[in-house]
Specification:
The complex is a heterodimer of chains A (about 250) and B (about 260). Chain A is α/β, with parallel strands linked by helices and about 250 residues long. In chain A, about 35% of the residues lie in helices and about 25% in strands. Chain A contains nine helices and ten strands. In chain B, helix 1 crosses helix 6, helix 3 packs antiparallel against helix 4 and helix 8 packs antiparallel against helix 9. Chains A and B meet through helix 2 and helix 3 of A and helix 4 and helix 5 of B.
Chain lengths: ~250, ~260
């Protein structure tokens, strides 16, 4: 299944993320075992796996929140293990991250939450009017009225949208989604998935989506990687994988 | 081997904890002088810790002075030494009781709040979100809080001591017919640099201990929401213990210096 010919309907652009032989273990438990991934420009790549299969660990290694035991991670052509702190921060400005639980700063208003990443990069990115950017990001997720509310005053779905607005406020080239629909009701989950599609179209981002939501994968994926016991088990389009006769692959879609 | 001896395990984990706390303190000093300086967040923390603790510290100080004077008065009166009350109360409050009690109150108010806040930020991935958005969370959350606690505690203690003396003066005014002016004249006659300097000096260390332990426990909390509760709780317990140790060392050094 790992043969490149298996994913036929997606046209490859330039690679934006390249992971080679990633290895990570906690004590005796091997979480990632020779994991490989390549994601291309403007692609929506879905990484699917059971809980505890190492998806979140992989995504955290990708942005430098965790250090892998071995392997190589290249983001936008830069080997992240060789980057200094300031270089890593510059690279992070090109990556938006939607956390599983939204991770909004609960002591700050929606406006302050969105201004936070902007303030960090104001000088370097020559940002003059933060208000405009905040409003533009809120408009993209349809929540301009919440600008002065605190996160606790918002519903789970609204919090997820605000977190999405925060992830795209710096107009990143890549957006990483960690379980974007987890904990949401089916209607809100559909709204979030649609929003992700719209954002990809509008901002021309490449998206890596970690999920075990089959609906989400069906609607959004250009290509999928199935993760089993910390390693790539299969790779292909949703159609190719969902019609596979391999019982292990079938188990992902039940 | 140590698993078979619970006492040995406890001692081992105690020293491991001390080691981790020392490394955490080392990281604080290393990052304290490096750019960028999170001045805005530092001021916000000073406001949160200082201004928002004023009422609590004021009430505690007032009651402390009031009760201390009420309790001491009958005994001193018996020996005809009631005129010594202002100097005795002021020296005990400024040198020892004021700083220790107010630091303990602040350990509960500030230490637990830092532990719980950072703990919940950790388990809800807010600290990770900060890191991803290009902010050094240690500098933004830890350095600012420890620094604010270190600078605010002495001010809170000075304020608390002053309110405690007002409480004491009130009792003296009502029970002993001593005017406020006379009371404070006697207080300022009795107090010298020997009383003020060591007390102020140790209050900086009290503040540092409260900030350091609160941040250490919160920043390293784990295991979900239960971990947040544990972080807040252990921040108070460890800080309280540390305050007494610092106080003992401060008194010992003061005795060595002033004889």
């Amino acid at each position: 299944m790992k043969d490149e010919n298996t994913y036929s309907s997606f046209e490859k652009g330039k690679p934006v993320i390249k992971i080679e032989n990633l290895q990570k273990q906690f004590g005796d438990e091997v979480v990632l075992n020779n994991f490989n991934l390549e994601m291309f420009e403007n692609e929506n790549l879905v990484l699917m796996g059971k809980s505890g299969s190492g998806k979140s660990v992989m995504i955290k290694c990708l942005v430098g929140l965790m250090e892998p035991d071995s392997g190589r991670i290249e983001v936008l052509g830069k080997d992240i293990s060789r980057l200094e702190r300031t270089e890593m921060d510059e690279l992070r400005a090109e990556i938006g991250f939607l956390f599983q639980g939204s991770a909004l700063y609960d002591s700050m208003t929606v406006r302050e939450n969105l201004e936070f990443p902007l303030r960090r990069h104001t000088k370097r990115m020559n940002i003059e009017n933060t208000d405009e950017l905040v409003l533009e990001a809120l408009e993209s997720v349809g929540l301009t009225k919440t600008i002065d509310l605190m996160p606790e005053e918002l519903s789970g779905g609204m919090q997820r949208r605000i977190a999405l607005a925060r992830a795209l406020i710096l107009k990143p080239k890549i957006i990483l989604y960690d379980e974007p629909t987890t904990g949401l009701d089916p209607i809100t989950a559909k709204e979030i998935i649609q929003l992700m599609k719209n954002i990809q179209k509008k901002y021309k981002t490449s998206s890596l989506i970690i999920t075990h939501d089959v609906d989400c994968a069906r609607v959004i994926s250009d290509r999928m990687i199935l993760l089993l016991e910390g390693t790539n088990y299969a790779e292909g389009t949703f159609k190719e994988l969902s019609t596979s006769e391999d019982p292990k692959i079938q188990a992902f879609f039940k | 081997m140590a698993e078979n001896f619970p006492m040995a395990t406890n001692v081992k984990s105690f020293f491991t904890e001390i080691g981790s706390l020392s490394r955490f303190a080392g990281r604080f000093f290393k990052q304290l002088f490096s750019r960028p300086f999170e001045f805005r967040e530092f001021l916000r923390q000073c406001y949160q810790m200082g201004n928002k603790s004023l009422l609590l510290v004021g009430i505690t100080g007032f009651i402390l002075g009031l009760v201390f004077t009420l309790q001491s008065r009958p005994t001193l009166e018996e020996f005809g030494a009631s005129s010594w009350i202002p100097s005795m109360i002021s020296i005990s409050i400024v040198r020892e009781i004021g700083p220790v009690i107010i630091a303990l109150i602040c350990a509960g108010r500030i230490g637990s709040s830092i532990g719980a806040e950072l703990g919940s930020m950790k388990v809800t991935e807010q600290i990770d979100a900060m890191e991803v958005s290009g902010t050094n969370p240690f500098k933004f959350l830890v350095v600012t809080r420890i620094l604010a606690a270190t600078l605010m505690l002495p001010l809170l203690i000075i304020f608390g001591d002053f309110v405690a003396l007002i409480g004491s003066a009130l009792v003296e005014n009502i029970k002993g017919q001593v005017s406020f002016l006379l009371y404070f004249n006697q207080v300022f006659d009795a107090l010298g640099f020997r009383d003020l300097l060591p007390a102020t000096g140790k209050s900086f260390f009290f503040g540092f201990a409260i900030g350091l332990v609160g941040c250490f426990k919160g920043y390293n909390s784990s295991k979900g929401t239960a971990g947040v509760g544990r972080a807040a709780n252990s921040a108070v317990v460890y800080t309280s213990m540390l305050l007494f140790i610092i106080d003992f060392i401060a008194v010992f050094l003061t005795e060595l210096i002033y004889g």
